[in-house]
Amino acid sequence: MKIYNTLTRQKEEFKPLVPGQVSMYVCGPTVYNYIHIGNARSSIAFDTIRRYLEYKGFDVKYVSNFTDVDDKMINEARAEGITVPELAKRYINAFMEDTTALNIEPATLHPRATEEIKDIIAFIKTLIEKGFAYEVDGDVYYRAKKFTGYGKLSDQDIASLEEGASQHVNEAEFAKKEDPIDFALWKKQKQSDEIAWDSPWGKGRPGWHIECSVMSTKYLGDTIDIHGGGQDLEFPHHENEIAQSEAKTGKKFVNYWMHNGFVTVGKDEQKMSKSLHNFVTVHDILKRVDPQVLRFFMASVQYRKPINYSEENLKQAAIILDKIKNTVLNVQDKLKETNSQENQDLTIAIEDSENRFKEAMDDDFNVQNALSVVYDLLPVINKNISEDTSDLSALRKFLQHLEKWLAIFGVDIDKLTTEKVSDDDAEIEELVKKRDEARKNKDFATSDTIRDQLAEMNIILQDTPKGTKWRRG
Ligand SMILES: [Zn+2]
């Protein structure tokens, strides 16, 4: 299996530290609002990766943090007149709700920055002792230049980093720092009502970067297999995590750095940004979009590629899910029959698909290629079920494989076949109900008209003792 490593900028053979096990850390959200579609993309991309690793038989330990204290948290809590922990509680709950709806498996552990203060302070103390950090008037900074290789993840040299840092100067901080590229590990409390913890440097709170170094090494060990996050975290966040962790432990921090691509919004594929007011929250999307469709859509683009979130693309995903659903329903119907006719070609096609699926996923999680294997197989299956006698054992095998393949994409086959996917479902339901009523009233002219109308929409009706069932043809 090959994984693209951001650090080396190439695909590398994946060799976990402990055979059969994978340690994985993914940077989680700052919980000051509902998660936006960019956060969801990261959660979905790494959940899909995790699920495939589990499918391959790895025992995956997956840690993802909540940043529950920082400037954004403090400002938002102040604006709402509530405490930072109150704000965090609200949006951690919302995160769990949204991610459950999107069928994202909970992390093995979801540590929170505010619950790790003791370890964060100890970590910073060690960095000071080793000469990698210094205190100035209650703030503690990391001495970036002392760390050999600072800039290696984002492929920048010190000169260009300094150039960049001098363009984003906060005058007050600039005056305190030895060098503009040094970054904060501990931030002094600014106002007496601001959330703060006691430390050897006075009252304050941890910086953002340090929390991930602490939680990753604490829960997964000094060196881990995979560290993931959005492309925007490559610099400075992950660069700083490497500097902090490797300076403290003297060991390699992460073997495989993985970064997911951006999400653009709308027809003109704009980047999401505060100034464009196009931050789309999952909470809002799920009021009108089926979570299965959103999940499948986001999982069906390879994690490193950009995703364009648009109505059109969501619609396409819904159509594909519908096609899969139809085949599954038809196979399930067919499996009620008793006569079976062995079809060697079908068995071979299914086995071949399994191999090609794995081959695609083993190539840096190429989900698009993996899904085309599934799409190619559907007509082969449909052909077999259209025959008078199908190969029932092959069809059963197909369902078993499909269930596992789709689960990697967060699609639950039972849910898919029992819940509605398309927008026009409500309309169809309404027509089916009207037809049932017409039949009850022996108004066969009306019921026939509705049946024709549904047939035109490619809807197949099945009259059962429990009422009329329908499915797409
Ligand atoms: Zn992080």
Automatic annotation (TrEMBL):
Output the CDD domains linked to this UniProt entry. Answer: CysRS_core
- Catalytic activity reported: tRNA(Cys) + L-cysteine + ATP = L-cysteinyl-tRNA(Cys) + AMP + diphosphate
What keywords tag this UniProt record?
A: Aminoacyl-tRNA synthetase, ATP-binding, Coiled coil, Cytoplasm, Ligase, Metal-binding, Nucleotide-binding, Protein biosynthesis, Zinc
Q: Which SUPFAM superfamilies match?
A: Anticodon-binding domain of a subclass of class I aminoacyl-tRNA synthetases, Nucleotidylyl transferase
Major place of residence: cytoplasm
Q: How is the cofactor bound?
A: Binds 1 zinc ion per subunit.
Annotated GO molecular function terms are: ATP binding; cysteine-tRNA ligase activity; zinc ion binding
Pfam families assigned to the protein according to its UniProt record, in alphabetical order: CysS_C, DALR_2, tRNA-synt_1e
Which Gene3D superfamilies does the record cross-reference, listed alphabetically?
A: Cysteine-tRNA ligase, C-terminal anti-codon recognition domain, HUPs
Q: Where does Zn(2+) bind?
A: 27, 212, 237, 241
* Entry-linked SMART domains: DALR_2 (SM00840)
What stretch or stretches form a coiled coil here?
321-363, 421-448
**Family matches, as InterPro entries:** Cys-tRNA-ligase, Cys-tRNA-synt_Ia_DALR, Cys-tRNA/MSH_ligase, CysS_C, Rossmann-like_a/b/a_fold, tRNA-synt_1_cat_dom, tRNAsynth_Ia_anticodon-bd
Q: Where is this motif: 'HIGH' region?
A: 29-39
Which GO BP terms, alphabetically?
cysteinyl-tRNA aminoacylation
Q: Which domain of life does this protein belong to? A: Bacteria
- Identify the residues that bind ATP: 274
The cellular location(s) given in this protein's UniProt record come to: Cytoplasm
Domain (Cysteinyl-tRNA synthetase class Ia DALR) ranges:
356-417
How does this chain assemble? Answer: Monomer.
Can you tell me which family this protein belongs to?
Answer: Belongs to the class-I aminoacyl-tRNA synthetase family.
| Protein name per UniProt | Cysteine--tRNA ligase
Gene name?
cysS
